Structure formats: structure tokens, C-alpha cells
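Quick sanity check, Sulfotransferase domain protein:
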Amino acid sequence: MPKIFLHLGFPKTGSTYTQAFLSKNRDILESRGLRYPKIVDRRGKETLGHSTAFFAAFTEDPATHAALARQGRNSLEDKEHFIDQLSQSIDFDGDLIFSGEGIPSLSKDALKDVKEFLRRTKKRIIPICLVRDPYEYTVSHIQQSVKRERPLLVSRRSVVGHHKKLSRTFGEVRVLSYNAIRQQENDVALELLKHIGASQSGLSQPNSGSRNESLSDNATRIMGHINTVFPKSPETTAGANVRSVNDIRELRYIKGGGKFLLTNGEYDAIADDISAEVEYLTATLGESFEGKPPDTRAVPAPWSDEDIQYILDSFSTLGWPGVIGAYSYFSFYRNISDTWIEVLRGEVEKKAAKGRRTGQEIPAIQPNEKMIDGLRKGAEQTASRFLSDREIVEHIQGVNALTARS
């Protein structure tokens, strides 16, 4: 009986790489009886994975879906287009494999619609998920959120809810241990093909850009701070309190401080939730899951002179919000010496003076409730670095005075 394999992530288990691998080897796989459908949007652009197609096709009102709205694929025309694309893709005599780590986020009713849609093929539906250690998954998700220009907010990310929902919808859900695959230094995509019984010979690796690169502790924390102080603008041009997309991209490449880890205090806030997650996964998945002791730090990683010099060297390429955001990060948390604070302040003042000479628009930072609330939350998450409302307001007013045009 032909099969439909649904590779459903979970997120942060090599899904992007797996989708790039399947896409690159599409023709070879299909010649062997396994189709990885090519789905394109209304502009003819291929969607590497299938989350967007399933979201657009099965979300009741795509106009209300935030991710689709950001992509500009949230109209009824998009819904009809992707339903048509999926309908064409399942017209195949052999096996099918869809991949979309976002699909488990669909509502229960939407997942039931997906199941009924796929059952028309008379093929056996087999959902497959890779499960990662809950703490590692949470840490990786926080990094990804920061890379997407969001504040660093510590909260537990759960796969248990997804697993329960998928089990109720599809019955048995096959689970592979992502940690076991990585510990053996095996290729995630090849392990998935091996599991479903597909030939792995003669397949090519995608380019290295198909993997999501991790951020260092220092890079994650400074970018998270700037994302809080200067939220990303939804518009093309950033305003006074916002910034444009990717104008702090250079900060991704800060290597100092080692890998990003939660501090002991940050982990304590989610420890009970993580323990409950591990307990459920161990009881449900048995030998296919192995929880690990959390790897945390007492405090955020220290900054070396080389790290600070990298920041200074980046000032020429960073947008103004990135420059003042970097300065405010260090003056805020005081985790480098006062000497370096003064050096950073001097560099910021030089850039401000150059901007005034050239007529560059330098935005003033006005303290407002949203910004203060965001900074307060960030401070509260690290008890040793708590700042009062008064200190936050004074800091923002100080930054505002520094950027004021004469």
C-alpha cells in the first residue's frame, strides 16, 4: 500500500536542512518512487518546506494568520492556489513525503481537514517527528527568535502539546531521537530516509547555507537587547523608536563567550516545566528519548577585549540603532569594565558628530511604556541584574540626550 510520510519537525531538529536535502534530490527520489512535492506560491517561487502551503490551504481564515501575513500569502486567492498545488502534488502512484515543522501548530480542526484531504489518495498516512531534549530545544528556539529581530525572552517551548494533538488526530506518530542522531554524527536527512525505507545511495548534500547557524552567548544577548530597545519596524523605513531589518546582522558573528546558555536564574524560571516535559517524553517514548541534565551558566558569558574590539570595528557597518543599542547594552548591564564603557561612549559620540556633519537623521529615543516594560521584563529574568523603573527611565533619558542633535 503506498504511503504518505508527514515529516513534521519538530522545530529545531534540522528541518531546514532536511527540506533542502529533499529538494536538491527531488528528481532522483521520484525516479525511485518517492515524491517530495515541489510547491510554488502565486509568484512562482518555490517554498522549500511545506508549512506555508498547509497553513494557507487549511487555516480557516488565512488573513488572520500572522506568519502568512508577514509573507504576503494570506489572501483567499493564496488559499485556493495552495489547495490546487497540494491537490496536484498528491496525484502520484508511489509514496509521498511532505515536510513542514510548522504543520503541528495548525488547530485541531485544521489538522483533521489535512487528514481528510490526504485520505483521498487511499495511501497510508504516517506522521514522523524528531524530538530534541526540551532544554536544548528551548535554548535553540530563543536564539532563533533573536535572529528574527525579537527580544530575548526566556520561556519554555513545548513539544508535548504538539505530540498529543498529532496523536489524537492521526493515531500513531513515529518518533525519532534527534539527540541520538546527532550524538552519532549521522546526517538527519539520511536517517529520515533510512527510517522510511528509501534508498540513500547517490544523493547530494545541499549547500552549507541550508543549516541554521547557532549564535554565541554574547551575540544572542546583545542582539536580544537591541531588539528590545529598538523593535524592528514593520515599515520599509525605520522611525524614531524602531529600526530596519538586518541592520545589526554583523553582530551575529560575535564568537566570544561560547555557545548561548541560560543562566542559573533564567533556567530556574522554567525548570519545573522542563522537568514535566522530560517526564512525559520519557514515559511516552521510552528508549527513543533520553533527557539530559541542563547545561547552564551562573551568569552571562564574560566579554573579552577581542569581543569588544569586534563591536567597535562593526560600528562602521551597523545602522545607528545598532550602534547606540550596543553602547546601551554595556552601560545597562555593566558586564564590562568602566574603561570600555567610556571607549564605547566615545565611539558613539564620534558617529553622532559625523552624522550631524553629514545631515544624517539621528533618531531620538523617547522613553515610552512599551519600551520600559520590555526592558523591565528582560532585567527581571536575571535577578542579579535587576533594574528599577527609575533606573530604566534614567538610562533611556541618558541615551536620548546622547543622541540629541545640536
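Posting the structure with no commentary besides this: The first strand starts at residue 3 and ends at 7.
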